[in-house]
Amino acid sequence: MSESPPWEVLDLVAQHLDPRTVASAACVSKSWSLFMCSDHLWRPFCSTAYPSLSNLRAAVSLPVSYRKLYSLGYAAEKRRRYTPPKPRFSLKDFFFAIDIYNTRHSGSVMTVVKPGRELDGDGDAVFRFDIDVISSKMLALEAEDSLGVTWSIVLGDFEGVFTLMDCVGKGSFVMGLEGWFSKKLPVPGCCSSGSGSWLVAELRIGLRRREEDGNVVVEKMSLGILSVVSWRYVRVDEAIRYLQHFLPQPPLN
């Protein structure tokens, strides 16, 4: 059985290798792993490729190896370069169903159905849409009423339904002539980590006070999906990639 080369030779050779080769060499044996994972080899790699991580380690005295820091930086860089797959669905495959109901009188104020094909939004547009309400379908509200809202996404001919929100708000918002509802969205099963979702469904109701009787009526609404990380509306393709986790997969062509 051949003997391992002297450590001086390994050190000399390792200094001329790239990070991937050094990481592979660490798998040769336990002794090689100890040497090839040493900080004096990985510190130059980390300082060159990810100087901010190296500076962070020095600033806060992190008890983490340079090899670990390099792997973290490499994984983050890989995620940034990752291009998500194209969504399996598009807006035209859905229609939005919004039901506004009066909890005080146990009655529906209005139901709005909006086909996705009538919404203006491509993959790069944000997932936020304004919907005008047909005046003939408006019903009067009183200031003390409490409103509830249910917003569902329906796939095709009821092939699947996902409810983004079903919540109640107090009627005191009537004086401000705008109703606002939001609901934190669940984490997809494949991404469950116990940390909660980073998306929020938002629905705003525009209200108008009628001059003839003083009652408040629903005039328009806007709806969208927000990221709680950036507090911006997500893109259409991002929203659809999220929604498709809760809907049946389309048949293969």
What are its keywords?
elongated, 253 residues, six-stranded antiparallel sheet, alpha+beta, 30% strand, single chain, four-stranded antiparallel sheet, 10 strands
Task: Outline the structure in words.
- The chain is of the alpha+beta class and 253 residues long.
- It contains seven helices and ten strands.
- It has helices at 7-14, 19-25, 30-36, 39-49, 51-60, 66-81, 236-243, and strands at 94-102, 107-115, 128-132, 140-141, 147-155, 160-169, 178-184, 199-209, 216-227, 232-233.
- Strands 3, 4, 7, 8, 9 and 10 form a six-stranded antiparallel β-sheet that branches. A four-stranded antiparallel β-sheet has the order 2-1-5-6, with no helix packed on it.
- Helix 4 (39-49) packs across helix 5 (51-60) and helix 4 packs parallel to helix 6 (66-81).
- It starts with 6 loop residues before the first helix and ends in a 10-residue tail after the last helix.
- 23% of the residues are buried.
- Residues 170-176 and 192-196 have low confidence and may be disordered.
Brief summary of the model shown:
It contains 7 helices and 10 strands.
Topology, please?
Elements: H1 7-14, H2 19-25, H3 30-36, H4 39-49, H5 51-60, H6 66-81, E1 94-102, E2 107-115, E3 128-132, E4 140-141, E5 147-155, E6 160-169, E7 178-184, E8 199-209, E9 216-227, E10 232-233, H7 236-243
Antiparallel strand pairs: 1-2, 1-5, 3-9, 4-9, 5-6, 7-8, 8-9, 9-10
| Arithmetic mean of pLDDT | 81
* CA-based shape: elongated
Helix/strand structural class: alpha+beta
| Helical coverage, percent range | 25-40%
* Count of strand segments: 10
Which stretches are low in confidence, meaning pLDDT under 50 for 5 or more residues running? 170-176, 192-196
Major sheet summary line: 6 strands, antiparallel
Distance between the termini: 58 Å
